[in-house]
Design brief:
Layout: E1 2-4, E2 7-9, H1 28-39, H2 43-59, H3 63-69, E3 84-85, E4 91-92, E5 120-124, H4 130-146, E6 155-158, H5 166-177, E7 189-193, H6 198-212, E8 216-219, H7 221-225, H8 229-242, E9 249-250, E10 264-272, E11 284-290, E12 298-304, H9 316-331, E13 337-343, H10 350-368, E14 375-382, E15 408-410, E16 421-425, E17 437-444, H11 450-460, H12 475-501, H13 508-511
Parallel strand pairs: 5-6, 5-7, 7-8, 10-13, 13-14
Antiparallel strand pairs: 1-2, 3-15, 4-9, 10-11, 11-12, 14-17, 15-16, 16-17
Helix pairs in contact: 4-8, 5-6, 6-12, 9-10
InterPro entries: ArgoL2, Piwi, Piwi_ago-like, RNaseH-like_sf, RNaseH_sf
GO molecular function, one term: nucleic acid binding
Protein name: Argonaute 2
Amino acid sequence: MANYKDQIYLAQKYVVIIADQKARKLTIKEKADLIRKAASINPIDRLDEVRNSVEELINIDNNENYLKEFGFNISTQPITIRARVLDSPKLLEGDDRPIKLTNGKWRYRKFFQPIALKRWILVKLMHFDDSTVEKFLDTFIRNGEQLGMQIDMPIRMDYDFDIATLANFLQKLQHTYSSGSGSEQQLQLLFFIGCNTEWQHSAIKKCGDVDFGLVTQCIRQTNVQRINQSIAVNILHKINAKLGGINVTLDYGKLLQADDYRKTMAIGVDVAHPSPSEKNLPSIAAMVANVDESFARYTSSVKIQKFFRQEIIQELDKMLIDLLRAYEMETNQLPERIILYRDGVSEGQFQVVFNEEILLIKETLARYRSGHKFRLTFVIVQKRHHSRFIPDNSKDGVGRFYNIPPGTVVDTDVVHPRRFDFYLCSHAGIQGTSRPSHYCLLVDENEMSADHIQNFTNVLCHLYARCSRSISIPTPVFYAHLAAFRAREHIQAATSLMMLSMTNNHNFDSFVEMSPTMRSSMYFC
């Protein structure tokens, strides 16, 4: 028993949970089932639900007469608008082969730049039958080699997970298996199988990313036991990107306005907030940008917000400088065009963002390098809105739910009358009704035409390393979300360790300070 910050902590083995208590949080399975049910309404049924809701509203207690007295006339029919579908971007896989896209999806024959996995350790966090492990390794290695990765058999070991001894365990592995100075003698990957809980995952990532600079991959028990090609390929997408490989790249030879993509930095910015019950945890700002001209390799900068659930980012200048230095180090040049996508901002915050964040960015760019001129385009990305688009003719829909096709753009009729904004559905809806992303341009020093910014945004949605399909928001924005969420895991793991050691040093900045060997990697992938 110990006292920590006026709270008494007991060893878990002495605690009994009283029955019949109210469950205040959903389990992971309950969350998944709820989301699956809510998201599985097809477009036609959703439209019928909206019509029925409007009719019920009008018919309640003679509402129609009240509405007419105030000059309102609500139609129960949706409006018909104009839309167009952008061409799919031209992508390349291994051996410079063009990729054939079908409704935003494709199949790899080979990664564009596969990485050989020669020195890695498979760590079992629980007991598995030998046959299960052999099948897992065979499927993993075979699919990796089909994608161009040369994968040797791993070193195998067991570890009885304990958050109090995890750091010592990883330190010993690093000392034992990364003793040489050459790249071939460095440990490339720690692969943990049977990582079933969030706190295990958080602790492993914190120790690997922050403390020791080790690339880690975790997989649950169920995925080990039911390993198949799909699961293996999904894991290999992540690992190849983490190790410095490139899964897919742009075909500059067939890219419209190809010169406009060169010397361009695409930045994604997001802020992750703690839940209302986590009042002792800070908000986390993340900024991610490409460090190559093919928008395949990215670096990140993460900062802690000073105030609880604060959306406006104070240290954007420091984060931007981190990214510019990384870009220059990798390409030996500075970008001329900066296209920044800002997530998580509501329309009511546009003016504050303009007055604080955009002005700070402009000041930083102006003083960064004497004689070098940057041109900034600042775009707000919004997913939380109520606009949905359904094909007027179901034959024009794609997938089993007949959603609008990937690349659908709406920039008339339902957009702002004065500000330039548009809706882009860059992905194919897997289930339910596709939700397009809403883009609002606040600054455009690059003087991009509507076609240019829409096509550029659509291209960025096809370069996400973790899957072979287009996604709903630009890749750097999604990576910023992942980087912020990973930093949150680092903090949660660090605070858990502090409670065990009975210290009270809440230096959150140190908890998210990446190991030097990881700063230029896509550890968040």
